[in-house]
Amino acid sequence: MAGLLCGTKRKKQVSDLHEEGKKAINAPMLPTGTDIHPEDTLLEENAERIMLDPTSRENLKFKDLLKVLIDWINSELEEDRIIVKDLEEDCYDGQVLQKLFEKLSGRKLNVAEVTQSEIGQKQKLQTVLEAVNEMLRPHGWTIEWSVDSIHSKNLVAIVYLLVALAMHFQAPIRLPEHVSVQVVVVKKREGILQTALVTKELTSTTEMMMGRFERDAFDTLMDHAPDKLNVVKTSLITFVNKHLNKLNLEVTELESQFADGVYLILLMGLLEDYFVPLYNFFLTPESFEQKVHNVAFAFELMQDGGLKKPKARPEDVVNLNLKSTLRVLYNLFTNYKNTE
């Protein structure tokens, strides 16, 4: 028995040594901090696998982009009672992507509602992506995703797809600018794994991203007629003070005085003629999160009043982005300019 155990142990050591040698040979010049997955050593000749570099996953702008996309999906699919928490885990099987595409396009896809098997999930993804690609290709989109990349939970491919959908359907969100990540590309050539770091640009400037659609009045105003900007600001200040003066409040600086959301909330109460309970918001917000909460709550009040969801992000208003603040206030002005 001792001899048998000893022999088994030696076989395991030999096997472990063989695996270690295999990995050492197959993974030359692997970028630091990147793990080769076991399935990578099983890649077929000339096949490749792409994965997000761990350092990019911690990039703050990338995290911000993920949050914006998740919040957008949850807002769109609220009536379906679908809550997305993780893009990789919640989008890979095609269920969320199907519902999102149907909501955005108003088109019903002929797919099974619930699919548990891998084959069924890939069939659903195939149908969804064919519909998406058919819609996007004529508009010059480069297809950076596939059934296999989405189903294998390739986060970069999923983000590319969602950004394309958000831009094509003019989602009422502001995507963070200049978000790039590094991906590790693993290829198998003559039985040897070759790796390389490649930079992928997920978003560009707001102007370029919005360039696919009609630019709004504030883009034109700020780019080509900055001298008229003060006229617009004066008109908006007059409008908001007409109502805020009822509470003995006065605005002189649009950028800063609406950044914490308090005046926006109080203004909505005045315009719609109701009292906003103080426990619903932070009257003296101190942290960035509290200010974002306030602005987001003001946006909810606007939607409750029948207005479309503002295209600006709450974070942009809090960060003193003048164009975003002007968009929000101008939306109120056009809807309530005759309100006493």
UniProtKB/TrEMBL annotation:
Any one Gene Ontology BP term: establishment or maintenance of cell polarity regulating cell shape
Keywords, sorted A to Z: Actin-binding, Cell adhesion, Cytoplasm, Cytoskeleton, Repeat
GO molecular function, one term: actin binding
Main location: cytoplasm
Domain Calponin-homology (CH): start-end pairs: 63-170, 230-337
Compartment list: Cytoplasm, Cytoskeleton; Cytoplasm, Myofibril, Sarcomere, Z line
Coiled-coil regions listed in the entry: none
InterPro entries for the chain: CH_dom (IPR001715), CH_dom_sf (IPR036872), Parvin (IPR028433)
CC terms in the record's Gene Ontology section: actin cytoskeleton; focal adhesion; lamellipodium; Z disc
Membership in a protein family: Belongs to the parvin family.
Annotated protein name in UniProt: Parvin, beta
Protein's organism: Seriola lalandi dorsalis
Lineage: Eukaryota, Metazoa, Chordata, Craniata, Vertebrata
